[in-house]
């Protein structure tokens, strides 16, 4: 076994703290990565606090992982020692169901194996990227370009692909009016991709103070959703709304902003169920949809697109000892736009 160290939550009631554990040995199809940086996702906090479902403890969060390959198995073909590599939200799937064969491992009919807070195919808990090393089968390791800032690349493995995938699926681009609801870790990437794809992008936010930040990211318009006059001016105008908000909000209000045949795409995950009036959908044949991350091939496509167009996340680099305080700041929206842990501080 490989000796590893991390920050882990021992129970939902305890803060993250140093923890020593073991990773599996590198098998013939495995890649071992020395983790240099790991992004901090809102879902990390949801899961260590058991807010979505009962967790697997001790829990090592982190699914926005980048670093350098230190060892490869005998049958690995795509990676070699010294390569830059990344790992996102999943580390395995059945690979034989129709979804896996279609490159949609995130929707594996047998359930994909999450990078942390899950059991692998042999029943062993998975531990995430708030650690110094990880071992992952080759098929779920991603190539990372040396053209991009490595720390700022880390959040692309979740925040990036979570917004890239639905925009590509619904073919959002030139001629479309796209609204991005929320300007946080997910929202700021939605703005960057929407602009890069050629859409006319509007940021919807309750915070008027974020207008300049939205414009700096490339947004063409900004609407303060607490201002009825501004909201009324954009009712029935958007082809798509990318909803990145993870707090409870008025879905009927935002559905009213869609034009006929418009689609609201949910990528945020509130802890409470949505409440929607049927007529919000029937009026104008509007749709409400959801999207999870992306498959491995699409995630690699996204990373390659980012390297070609110089797109990374806007980040604040932190020491791992400051993770609890960073969670508190994240809940207050006090970060632009993603915390990334420098794993050299572990």
Description:
The protein has 346 residues and is an alpha/beta fold. The chain has 11 helices and 17 strands. The chain has helices spanning 42-48, 98-101, 150-153, 159-169, 185-196, 211-216, 228-233, 251-255, 278-282, 296-309, 323-331, and strands at residues 2-8, 17-23, 30-39, 65-72, 84-87, 90-92, 113-114, 133-137, 142-143, 177-181, 200-205, 221-224, 238-243, 258-266, 287-290, 315-318, 338-342. Strands 3, 4, 5, 8, 9, 16 and 17 form a 7-stranded mixed β-sheet that branches. The chain has a 6-stranded parallel β-sheet with strand order 12-11-10-13-14-15.
Shape descriptor = globular
Order of helices and strands: EEEHEEEHEEEHHEHEHEHEHEHEHEHE
Count the domains. 2
- Which stretches of 5+ consecutive residues score pLDDT under 50? none
CATH superfamily of the largest domain: Medium-chain alcohol dehydrogenases, catalytic domain
* Alpha plus pi helix count: 11
The CA-CA distance between the termini, in Å, is: 20 Å
Q: Specify the helix fraction band.
A: 10-25%
The CATH architecture of the largest domain is Alpha-Beta Complex
CATH fold field value of the largest domain: Quinone Oxidoreductase, Chain A, domain 1
Strand count: 17
Class computed from helices, strands and strand pairing: alpha/beta
CATH class of the largest domain: Alpha Beta
Mean pLDDT: 97
Rg from C-alpha positions?
20 Å
Beta percentage is 25-35%
Largest sheet: number of strands, sense, barrel closure? 7 strands, mixed
